[in-house]
Amino acid sequence: MAGILFIISAPSGSGKSTLVSEVRRLVPGLEFSISYTTRAPRGSEEDGREYHFTDKPTFERMIANGEFLEYATVFGNHYYGTAVSALEHARAQGHDLLLDIDVQGALQVMKKVPEAVSIFILPPTPEVLEKRLRNRSQAEGVADEAEIEKRLSQARTELQQLQGYKYALVNDLLDQAASEMRAIVLAARNEGNVEDATLAATCSTSQHSARLDAALASFRAVD
Ligand code: ADP
Ligand code: 5GP
Asked: Cα-Cα-Cα-Cα dihedral of 43, 48, 54, 60, to 10°?
């Protein structure tokens, strides 16, 4: 089956971009929706590759013109949105489309496209998340402590939405998380074997795997 919409959400720094790149390498035919954002490019990001970087007046004009499938203000000050045209383009081509969007945007898409396959990615512990956020900002030459704190506290809020997703993945070991996400994609396409279907089922949010429960408990422990 082609034309499946996958919604991926994760607290910033969970490793979602890394995981998505790995899964796109493992599974052919997954188109990635390039969002619009008013935030500035980070590190080596390029306009039209990671995001369409735009200014606020342009973004607000696009909202007024009804050009977004969903949009949200993330971290208080920047707009992020998915253009309706991304979905139309993928559907016209019969391609599966992957949306990397925050929980607010995900809720909007789940309402509009109830058959979408939603996946929440979480880091194994808040300590690991903090380390990844710090490593990334050092690698990019920016050390914004306030921004890191904001993202850590936002992570706790976002985790409260996890049960609304169909699947949850703990991104501890990259290879394991990538195999799980690959299995979910193949299961949704009815292309996988029995092992893939079993692996996908263990990631269902209704299953409460030991790994998921441990990750959730570690975030609650420091509340
Ligand atoms: P996100 O897209 O969720 O904001 P990134 O993919 O940019 O996160 O990852 C944040 C940082 O964590 C990066 O430095 C990345 O290399 C690292 N990272 C991602 N996944 C893993 C993993 N499974 N194990 C260790 N480090 C990881
Ligand atoms: P970052 O600034 O780290 O690239 O992304 C910050 C957050 O914005 C992430 O949670 C990411 O999933 C989310 N995001 C990226 N694109 C979109 C989008 O088009 N819509 C919404 N709602 N969120 C997005």
From this structure: -140
